[in-house]
Design brief:
Layout (H helix, E strand, L loop, with lengths): L12 E4 L4 E4 L13 H5 L5 H12 L2 H16 L2 H29 L1 H24 L4 H9 L7 H13 L3 H32 L4 H19 L22 H28 L6 H21 L6 H15 L1 H9 L3 H12 L2 H15 L5 H29 L2 H4 L1 H24 L2
Antiparallel strand pairs: 1-2
Helix pairs in contact: 2-9, 3-4, 3-8, 3-9, 4-5, 4-6, 4-16, 5-6, 5-9, 7-8, 7-16, 8-9, 8-11, 8-15, 10-11, 10-16, 10-18, 11-14, 11-15, 12-15, 12-18, 13-14
Length: 431
């Protein structure tokens, strides 16, 4: 019997019956390739992998600088109060300067502004290192750390690139925002741990020095991808984002949301210290960030349903409800072991809320001013974090750490009330 030659498809087999002629085709059939997942579809776009790698490298120091500054100054001057005051001054300076830098980025382009702004910020970092090392007067620490406020908002610039590349593809933009939020959470998980390790294992200035090197290297790689950079809008006539319809109440809501993060961090550290496990506070807080990171990635893989304005209050309501879990765990058990999973679950509402808020910022920001709009959102969060930290520290010290856990829930509820109030007013003022 002749055998079919190798490399050829088998010939159809003829089967003859009394009534029919059946042709059985044994030709191999190939299944169509599986459709790529939502995150994979983002990174098939040219240049996206390169600017994302640079973005992540430059973003990691954001979680390193504050911790490094506190450890470095406290080790050299023996005062946590001084260290906290210096970092608070840097935070206030960033809130004032960052929108101005972002406005220049929108007008003249990311590479043209971000690189010199980063270099100027690193000069402030070097000045701080020298002032600490050579025991300069305390006021020089404030001035040097304030000079780092020109650090560009790398997360906002990355989101602006996604918005430029994806255009009106709302599903893809939702996934990109979720990825960026997960990256934020990852950097805030790894950054403080890396900073503490470097400062402890090497020398007190090691965390700040490493952060500066990573920031410059990541910014160089990020800005080198000019093909994905949004075009500058030098002659835009659009109104500032702060005056855009719906933006002020959204920024107020982000201010309240920042209060959730700031108060939870301080109160958790105070609670762990009261239990005699202060060193474990970082691990417990990392669980909250881990829960947010995982939830953000899952949320980004889902296709959003309904308008963003309707999803936002639901996300805030979920965050307010889940933030009650740490309060319940601390009040009923007083155990750090029980608090840890409560923070993990509570963190799962953070990323979906932030992703939805970011999408709203992008929708409400006038064309040509996206970097400024995103930076205003970050400024609102930073202001809320500062207020939440101060309020959380006051409650933990004057009342108790357990009582302080009521602050994150109250701040989330306030953000929800602001969103509902604006939604109600908008519905009843439409013609």
């Amino acid at each position: 019997m002749p055998q079919p030659s190798s490399g050829r498809a088998a010939a159809p087999l003829l089967t003859v019956t009394q009534d029919t002629l059946v042709i059985a085709d044994f030709t191999p059939r190939h299944r169509p390739p599986a459709e790529p997942g939502p995150y994979r579809r983002l990174f098939v776009l040219p240049g996206t992998r390169a600017f994302t790698i640079g973005n992540l490298i430059a973003r990691l120091p954001i979680g390193m600088f504050s911790v490094s500054a506190v450890i470095m100054i406290a080790a050299s001057r023996g005062s946590y109060a001084l260290a906290g005051s210096v970092t608070a001054t840097g935070l206030a300076a960033t809130a004032a300067v960052a929108p101005w830098v972002a406005r220049l980025v929108d007008r003249y382009g990311q590479a043209r502004i971000a690189l010199p702004a980063t270099v100027f910020a690193l000069l402030g970092t070097v000045a701080l290192l020298l002032c600490v090392h050579y025991d300069a007067p305390d006021w020089t620490l404030f001035a040097a750390y304030a000079a780092t406020a020109t650090t560009p908002n790398i997360g906002g610039m990355s989101r602006a690139r996604w918005a430029h590349l994806l255009g009106n593809d709302s599903n893809a933009l939702h996934t990109a925002n979720a990825f960026e939020q997960a990256a934020d959470e990852l950097c805030f998980m790894l950054g403080p741990a890396l900073a503490a390790f470097l400062c402890g294992a090497l020398f007190p200035e090691a965390g700040m020095l490493t952060g500066g090197i990573l920031l410059m290297a990541g910014m160089l790689l990020f800005t080198a991808r000019r093909s994905t950079e949004p075009p500058p809008s030098r002659h835009t006539t659009a109104a500032p984002p702060l005056r855009a319809p719906g933006m002020p109440p959204l920024l107020l809501g982000l201010l309240a949301t920042g209060g959730v993060f700031g108060s939870m961090e301080v109160v958790t550290i105070s609670f762990a210290d009261a239990q005699g496990h202060r060193s474990a506070a970082g691990v417990v807080l990392a669980l909250q960030a881990a829960g947010s990171c995982v939830a953000g990635l899952v949320y980004g893989a889902l296709k959003p349903s309904g308008p963003t304005e309707r999803r936002y209050p639901w996300c805030l309501a979920a965050m307010a409800a889940l933030m009650a879990l740490p309060l319940l765990a601390a009040r009923t058990t007083g155990s750090l072991v029980i608090l840890a999973p409560a923070l993990l679950i509570a963190g799962m509402a953070t990323a979906p809320t932030m992703v939805t808020a970011t999408t709203l910022v992008q929708q409400r920001t006038p064309e040509g001013r996206l970097n400024e709009g995103m930076t205003l959102a970050v400024t609102g969060l930073l202001g809320g974090i500062a207020c939440g930290s101060a309020a959380g520290g006051w409650m933990a010290e004057r009342l108790s750490p357990v009582a302080g856990f009521a602050l994150p829930t109250a701040a989330a509820a306030l953000a929800l009330l602001i969103a509902l109030g604006y939604g109600y007013a908008a519905r009843h003022t439409r013609p």
